Automatic annotation (TrEMBL):
Biological source species: Pedobacter polaris
InterPro entries (UniProt xref): DUF3822
Protein's recorded name: DUF3822 family protein
Length: 272
């Protein structure tokens, strides 16, 4: 344990000298921060760090960079998924790399001015995003690939063919993807203070998107069967499942944790 809100799980056989054969997966939420180390040769998850209820996820990354020896290792590849309110999805047929800056006019908050593109070829769109200045500075600790926060969820959603609502929880926030006919209909992130606020956002989605009770519900992140969030969903939906990674990763280091806790983090391994 690192402090009351964080946990660091390390495979006792992990040798930091093997970092050049590993990927570092990083997920920076609005108020959470997590990372995983995955050996690309053995497909073994060597470490997972997670901190919930940060004051600021990007600031936590900056702080950890000063003290965490595992973040400074020379990895084969670094993949970083970051929360930002400044993003827009562009259909592939409308996307032009020469005209990226024109999309910044649709961003809702001040940003660094650096634009990134996350390609979602499976669903037929690209996500163009920019980050707050302090976040942009934080994620440039390595020459890694930058992704929108929902990148892991989108990678998980690629295996779904049915109508589905996918919800990824941290202690204080929620990311959502709604799919219909193998198309992304809606995606959004919310900060949630209590169960009443969660119920409000849920009802807004149900009503505006015409989601019925037979929709398949998939949960990942910090949520448990019969907790208040799970029971709230049961009021409106018939089928609720926990979403786990469907790949060959050896996750023995997480054997004492619920299997769905870090699905969206580990799914970054699948992102190109």
């Amino acid at each position: 344990m690192d402090n009351k809100n964080s946990i660091l799980l390390i495979d006792p056989t992990f040798d930091p000298a093997s970092a050049p054969s590993c990927n570092l997966l990083v997920k920076v939420g609005s108020k959470s921060f997590s990372y995983a180390i995955v050996n690309t040769e053995t497909k073994k998850v060597n470490a997972v760090f997670d901190e919930q209820e940060c004051e600021n996820g990007a600031k936590k990354l900056i702080d950890r960079l000063k003290t965490d020896i595992y973040l400074g290792l020379p990895y084969q590849e670094v993949k970083i998924a970051v929360h930002t309110p400044n993003s827009i999805a562009i259909p592939l047929e409308l996307y032009t790399a020469d005209n990226l800056s024109s999309n910044a006019q649709f961003f809702t908050e001040n940003h660094s001015g650096n634009l990134y593109v996350a390609h979602q070829s499976h669903f037929g769109f690209n996500t163009i995003f920019s980050l707050p200045t302090n976040t942009d500075e934080a994620i440039n600790f390595a020459s890694g690939k930058k992704y929108h926060e929902n990148a892991g969820l989108l990678a998980l959603a690629e295996q779904m063919k049915e109508t589905a609502l996918v919800l990824d929880f941290t202690v204080g926030s929620l990311s959502i993807i709604y799919l219909n006919n193998n198309q992304i209909i809606f995606q959004q992130s919310y900060e949630i203070d209590d169960i009443q606020e969660f119920n409000y956002y849920l009802l807004v989605m149900i009503n505006q998107l015409n989601i019925n009770a037979s929709c398949n519900i998939y949960l990942t992140g910090i949520v448990h069967k019969n907790d208040e969030k799970y029971n709230c969903l049961l009021k409106y939906f018939n089928t609720i499942q926990f979403l786990t990674i469907n790949n060959s990763l050896d996750q023995q280091v997480l054997d004492d944790m619920p299997a769905h806790y870090y699905s969206s983090l580990l799914a970054l391994y699948q992102c190109g």
